[in-house]
Amino acid sequence: MSTVEVRGLSRSFDGRDVLRDVSFTVGQGEIFGYLGPNGAGKTTTIRILLGLLAPGTGEVRVLGRDLAADDDARRRVGVLFENNGLADRMSAAGNLAYYAGLYGVEDPAERIDELLALVDLADRRDDPVGTFSTGMKRKLGIARAILHRPEVVFLDEPSSGLDPGAQRMVRDLILELSRREEMTVFLNSHHLDEVERICSTVAILAGGRIRAFDSVENLTAASGRPAVTVSLADPADRARACETVGRLPFVTGCDADGDSLLCTLAEPGATPDLVAALVGAGFRIEEVCRSSRSLEEIYLEHVGSAEGGA
Ligand SMILES: Nc1ncnc2c1ncn2[C@@H]1O[C@H](COP(=O)(O)OP(=O)(O)OP(=O)(O)O)[C@@H](O)[C@H]1O
């Protein structure tokens, strides 16, 4: 069973379609990245999943349940929206103790100590949250969201407004949560670099529709035929090497890509034969890499085609 299931979900506001026939699933233990431009409908999807907003048509399930109608299932879910949900006048520990009471957390003192250590705020436990930096508040917000050991946590833009160092802390924290607490993480994010590093699966939402839904690995693998980039010890040999490669039966194309050769192969297993042919022809090879596109390129391609009305 998938931890999150969205099937044929549509939603409009004031006659304007925001989500149109959106479907995807998130498996147990995955870190899922939900991507899309501003106003694409990412937060709307989360609100519908949490049962805070009614779907138009379609069906959503979290842990196999409809959270709008299931209090017990809601307790198995954590959520962090951009405002962190913290009271500025209360201390870090006081905020967590307040939520521990609401959630009925067992052994709250122990859990609070554990989480303050996890988010590296143990030495600030008694300071009012109003004195914290944006990054510290975000980390405490994440601790708040997972206080009751949810099985799945929804994080809406956890890195927004953070400097690169704080973004990295949040990224490491999410990975740690997934590993240590075996939590499924549903991440709304505009930070493609962050998503590429930590997410196993992504969906790209644009123009109200899912434009791509796949593992990061599959999405970033070179599209169409497999390709490798070959760097020669002497880049001046590029043109001659390209001619040699172009004559090989298992190579479908070769282009100079900066100082390297970008070779498109007829089949994925042809790389050793390509290397052998180049070495046999007297070329000296510095490096061979499987060619892949960045998540940013793929994202812009999908969002661009959606904006173009595709
Ligand atoms: N309660 C509401 N009433 C009317 N329109 C709404 C409501 N909630 C969301 N919208 C509209 O739905 C669209 C999607 O908003 P949403 O917040 O889901 O986008 P998002 O993808 O999370 O954007 P961002 O990345 O900027 O946070 C926006 O045009 C927004 O104005």
Summarize the structure.
This protein has 310 residues and is of the alpha/beta class. The protein has helices spanning 42-49, 71-74, 92-103, 108-118, 134-146, 164-180, 192-198, 216-220, 238-246, 271-280, 295-307; strands at residues 4-13, 16-26, 31-35, 57-62, 77-80, 152-156, 184-188, 201-206, 209-215, 227-232, 251-257, 260-265, 285-290.
How would the blueprint of this fold be written?
Layout: E1 4-13, E2 16-26, E3 31-35, H1 42-49, E4 57-62, H2 71-74, E5 77-80, H3 92-103, H4 108-118, H5 134-146, E6 152-156, H6 164-180, E7 184-188, H7 192-198, E8 201-206, E9 209-215, H8 216-220, E10 227-232, H9 238-246, E11 251-257, E12 260-265, H10 271-280, E13 285-290, H11 295-307
Parallel strand pairs: 3-7, 3-8, 5-6, 6-7
Antiparallel strand pairs: 1-2, 1-4, 8-9, 10-12, 10-13, 11-12
Bound molecules: adenosine-5'-triphosphate.
How does this structure look, described?
The protein is an alpha/beta fold and 310 residues long. It has 2 domains: 4-220, P-loop containing nucleotide triphosphate hydrolases (Rossmann fold), CATH 3.40.50.300; 227-290, Alpha-Beta Plaits, CATH 3.30.70. Helix content is 35%, strand content 27%. The chain is built from 11 helices and 13 strands. The protein has helices at residues 42-49, 71-74, 92-103, 108-118, 134-146, 164-180, 192-198, 216-220, 238-246, 271-280, 295-307, and strands spanning 4-13, 16-26, 31-35, 57-62, 77-80, 152-156, 184-188, 201-206, 209-215, 227-232, 251-257, 260-265, 285-290. Strand 11 (251-257) and strand 12 (260-265) form a beta hairpin. Helix 3 packs across helix 4 (108-118) and helix 5 runs parallel beside helix 6 (164-180). It is elongated. The model has no long low-confidence stretch (mean pLDDT 90). The structure holds adenosine-5'-triphosphate (ATP). Adenosine-5'-triphosphate is lined by residues 13, 18, 36, 38-44.
